[in-house]
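Dear support,

I submitted the protein below through the web form. The confirmation email said the job was done, but the results page showed an empty box. After a refresh the structure appeared. I'm attaching both so you can tell me whether what I see now is the final result or a partial one.
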Amino acid sequence: MNPSIALWSHPRSMSTALERSFIERGDFKVFHEEFAYVYFMHEERAAIPHKNPQPGHPLTYPDIKDMMEEARRESPVFHKDFPYHCLDHLLGDPAYLRGQINTFLIREPEEAVLSHATVHPDVTRDVLGYEELVRLFDHVTELTGTAPLVLNASDLAARPHETIAAYCEAIGVPFLPEALNWSAGERPEWTTWSGWHTDVSASSGIRAPRRNYRFGYADKPHLREFVRYCRPFYEHLDQFRLRPVKEATT
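What the results page shows now:
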């Protein structure tokens, strides 16, 4: 079997931008938030805007996992997802987690919460994703005896070349600097959730988010409570953060 790289993150973490660079590489089959079908379509645990389910797409955790695992027979796989989409299934499937390289991406909750509310004004605490991300991280650490790789979106935005080079070295794949730039436009991988990815669709490379938020914390004070809830989980993961080469040697 070819390798499978999992990028586990929370919403609005710049994870789609990192995913876009793996699409540009051309040597990976890339899957985008496939397990969201479990949470939003099959188990219907929450409502979400900008949903465009694809006819015939697998709906259950086993069927979605099998679809991605089958793709490994043809090429390496990169799949990006949020653990809250199927956390109970993941925690009960150690063989699947041990059989891939699990990596994690976080973003400062002060920014991620406002970005989330901009796309999903009725966002609830259930879909912020930080707590579930930590639970999966700790579980993988216990399973493997080693803390998985963690990237911080601030490094990805400020030093994309150094950060992705360090990421590629850590996961054992060649770094392709030409994959940091691409032609702007919607990708077929994003069809189900296209309304969530307007920024990266309009981009031609990894850059700092524009921060054109629809709301501020004065407009929606309960969002500040969301930040306070997320912060301990963010800080737990940030202590394992992979530092880009330039930052580590200065």
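Response: this is the final, complete result; the empty box was a page-load delay. Residues 37 and 56 are 11 Å apart (CA to CA).
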